[in-house]
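Quick sanity check, Copper amine oxidase-like N-terminal domain-containing protein:
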Amino acid sequence: MKKKSKIRSKGRVLLTGMLSLALLAGGGTAAFAETTANRAEAGGQTTIKQGSLQTIVAIGDSITAGYEPGMTETSAVYGYVDRIKEQALFHNRTEVTNYGILGLTSSGLLNYVKAIQEGIAVTADTIQPGISDPRISAFASGIPGTKTKLAQADTILITIGGNDVSQLIGQAKSMSAEQLETKAYELLTAYKTNIQEILSVLTVINPNAQIILADQYQPVPKIAGESQYVMLSKIAEGFTQAVDEAVAALAQEGKSVKAAHVAERFVGKELSYTHIFNEDVHPNQSGYETIAKVMAESIWGYYRITEAQNGKTELSVVVSGAELQTPYKPVVKNGQTFVVLRDITDAIGGTSKWDSKSSTATVSYNGSEVVIPIGAKTVTANGISLETASPAFLQKAGTEQKTYVPLALLVKGLGLDVQYSSKMKTVFINL
């Protein structure tokens, strides 16, 4: 009963500041890494040419930053943007840059993208006076580099709007119902105008990027009260309508802009997807996973998980988007992953030779060569000696002897890209 009472109390606080928004929603006004890849559009999905690099830039507020209660500058962040990088690695080599700013409003983001368009460093207050993010000065002074990143991006992801609403909540208690209704109307109108201009500026900075703008979920659960829940849900619908209208206007001009409908996925899952019970509206890990799924579906049409992420195996290896399927599972020694030589050479399309006299494997791919002696603490990649934490080894599997080689050293030596996701327990290899 205490939990239910607590949620209801929080719902009433939020409702006080947002009540009039519901009336307006139905009225139609509704860093933390990094050029250009070859992209073909088919069925709303993005395909990157093999061997090229896909670049994704995320910009926006604390949801873009991946904020959760208690987060500091040194916190290990795992938000939706980090998950999008993992999803991108299923498709090709990937660089992701995150320009998420804590406390940023749609007005602040508009100021930020206008400054980026100019390409000249500004002060923090030029972006948004009094902003709470301790990194704001670095964002402001780094604008020339930010413009380069945005101009080269294949995909630009945006979350913005939550802090616009919080401004109204802070003023609500001192307003009459009429004043609140007027202020709410102004907020929604300004939000829609801001996001339209933000999108327009971004299409000027980079006319070729796919731009995806998320709508706003509402965090208060039904347990706070049926009437409050219905009203707040209508508010979220109003913000979704504003996003859809802004996106549609640019799409009619031939711009590659999409809306990511996050809000509908949070309906009925507010307690499960946010920190609302602890008086914080930000997503928790389940919420960020959900946002990432919506964004990934907007980019590629689907969201993938590996067998290791599903708990079916200890470690997954993904090569050019295909999960390695083998009865000979990867082995981890001294923090280093080992795989069966034949499995990895077949997966990358390389060739291998075995010298039984010296117990040495030689792997070749696209002009590169890696020599791996069994039991030795070094391997040779294109004539350069490299140390290995643990040597390659032979292991019996049934009646066969399998050669296990250090995965990262091998693929890097062959000039391939290798990335490891500790959250997914997955190694990604891209050609």
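Posting the structure with no commentary besides this: DSSP finds 15 helices and 20 strands in the chain.
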